[in-house]
Each structure stands twice: as structure tokens, then as C-alpha cells.
Amino acid sequence: MRIPSSEETDETKDETELSDLETNFSLGNKHYYEEHNYEKAIEKYKQALEEEKDELIRVKITYMMTECYVKIGKLKEAKELFQTLAVDYKQHYLNDSARRRLEHLTDYLVGEE
User: Fold this and answer.
1) Residue 2 gets which letter from DSSP?
2) How many CB atoms within 10 Å of residue 59?
3) Number of neighbouring beta carbons within 10 Å of residue 21
4) DSSP string covering 41-88, please?
């Protein structure tokens, strides 16, 4: 395990120590499921997208980030991402769920206009 520099904050130290065992994706999931801190989860999911090369995992990360946008009320952002998932990843197992969520958000957003 690496020794954190003295310039790192306590939060950075905690996450650095965890990084040997946890990825930004798993940290995002922790913020989402355990802490219900959706904004922090979005941060971690964005970092995970920058790091992850596997397209199938990138779709999972994007889906979870999109659900965070729903939770914090950024429905237009969520709709755009669900649209991307529904159109561009037809073979992924999350496609059906993304299409259902997109349909629901579209109906909801139309009702708000």
C-alpha cells in the first residue's frame, strides 16, 4: 500500500487507501446505495468512465450515473443519457431498462411542460 503524501486531505487519504481494493465504480456504488449521496456518486462514476476501457462496464457506469441524475432531479440530463443507452447499446442487458426509464421520463417531462 502506498503512503499518502502530507499534502493529501483526509478524504483523499481515505479514498487512496481504499483504492487498492475499490475502484471509482465501486466507490460510486457505495455513495449511491449506502450513503444516498448521489452527487458524490456522480463524481465517482465520471472518474470511473475516464478510467474504464471495457465498453460493457462503461454502459453499467453510465446507467448508474443516469439513475443518480434522476434521484437529484436533473431529469433532462437523465433523459439524454437514457436515450444514448437505448439507441447505442441495443445488445446490452441494460437496454430494456434504459428504454423503459426513457419512456417514463419522457412522459413525465411532457406532463411538466
Assistant:
1) P
2) 20
3) 8
4) HHHHHHHHHHH---HHHHHHHHHHHHHHHHHTT-HHHHHHHHHHHHHH
Q: pLDDT tens across 8-29, in order?
A: 445 555 555 555 558 999 999 9
Separation CA 87–CA 95 (nearest Å): 8
Which of the following CATH numbers is that of domain 10-112: 1.25.40.10, 3.40.50.300, 1.10.287.110, 1.10.760.10? 1.25.40.10
pTM for the full predicted model: 0.78
- Helix H segments across 20-54? 24-29, 38-51
How many angstroms separate the Cα of 57 from the Cα of each of 17, 38, 45, 72, 77? 23, 19, 11, 23, 20
